[in-house]
Design brief:
It is built from three helices and four strands; from the N terminus they run H-E-E-E-H-H-E. It is of the alpha+beta class. The protein has one domain (10-131). A hairpin with a 4-residue loop joins strand 2 (56-66) and strand 3 (71-78). Helix 1 crosses helix 2.
Amino acid sequence: MVYRRTSLKRKKHQQLINKCVRATNKSLQEDNIWRGRFEIRQIHSDFYIFDDKSGAYLICYFEIVDKLTHKARMTRIEESQFIDDDIYYEVNDFVCNDIIAPIKYEGDFRNITIPVHSFRFWRNHMHQVVEV
């Protein structure tokens, strides 16, 4: 993954994040165990340019959703060289620590959609598991 820290354009930084989120969601969709049960969505982002105009960075707020139990958690991830690893870590942390996930269940969750919460809702529930 190419890291574009020196760009002052928000679009370049957002494209990098979108690429990582799409790859993560595709991986979760194609996984034989989870079969699309989990999904990550970006719901808000803040863009900051350094004072000396030497570069910029993006802070993103993601909603990680479990389609079986209808639980979700919001997490904040800063753009870094290892953004794709950070996203995988947050999804894994949600699956392993916040959700007691039985591996044996029937069903395919690839076509189920759950509405996205607003950023205003998540400000009060940062890093908490809530019912969707």
